[in-house]
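Exercise: predict the fold of this chain.
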Amino acid sequence: MIRINLLPFRAARKRENVRIQISVYVLSVVLLILCLGASFISLNSKLSEVKNKNAELQKELASYSDMLKQMDELKKKRDDLKSKLDVIQGLEAKRSGPVQLFDEIAMAVPKGKLSLKSLGETGDKVTMAGIAKDYDTVALFMTNLENTNTIGTVTLGATNITEVEAQKISNFNLTCLKQPVDAATAQKANVK
């Protein structure tokens, strides 16, 4: 019988299997490193894109915040101008208020039947005293006053009849409350 030593062949085969396994392992590790590197590069590029986009959005947000500041400043200016216009309109109404009041009182006086002796204005009250031919003339004067734009309510204080030069005349005292004059009414009065 012939003896064949198969051990070195088995050992060589074993070494070859180990070398193949090590090669496969090294190739697997290299492949894994390549995959991880590729994913790292991909994620890094995506991250840089996101950072760039974020920077652009931050710039856009900054420009919008500048616009918002400008809008707020414009709103403040608009509100200031509006308040100034309101003050001007109020001053115009107050300026023409007394003129309009005295004009309407003069128009309310029945001609030739009534004359005013005194006229005073304190705050929103107007007091007047005068003489009239009779009570009906005083009532007509009160009605005319209530129909004006500037006087709201008219209250008769006192009346008495006196005789002057063989004629009976009625002395009267009136208290009137003024109505607030708005700018539109004042402008209409100025136009007339």
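Check your answer against the key: The radius of gyration is 52 Å.
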